[in-house]
Amino acid sequence: MTDASRDRRTDRADRLIKASPRTIYAALVDAAAVAVWLPPDGMKGQVLAFEPHAGGAFRMALIYEAPDDTTQGKTSDQTDVVSGHFVALEPDRRVVQETAFQSDDPAFAGVMRITWALEPVPASASPAKTSLRGFPRRITTPACARRSPILQASRSRLLERSR
Predict the structure, then answer these.
(1) N or C: which end of the chain has fewer CB within 10 A?
(2) Rounded CA gap, 38 and 162, in Å?
(3) How much is the average pLDDT of 108-123?
């Protein structure tokens, strides 16, 4: 029997976003906003279910815009489907989700806990911190960091324009 925890890791990322915690929180709990800012570069999002309350379900398809030999979806050749539920929502402070990729590959199996923590700082900016616990080791840390929405300046600019 394999200890699945050995094949998991915790990744953390943070970025100072020139928007209030309220603006960032609103983007975390709005299905239309999530479909725009969450997909990594090179992918588009389609929200299939979204119930932003403790225990509420969500399901999203992340679709590769130009699939090629260097990209392979976890659910199909050009799609990653992720589903889960909201664990906790603290308005303007924190969103916690448990999520899993839909995949036949055991390297992508298992539940990830994603925590989005928001803290106000002077000058109308907020550090948005993300913790992804239980992340599959098959998804490399450099690839994750490169594609992480919170680390992508383009995603931060979406929030900064809407404040």
Answers:
(1) N
(2) 16
(3) 81
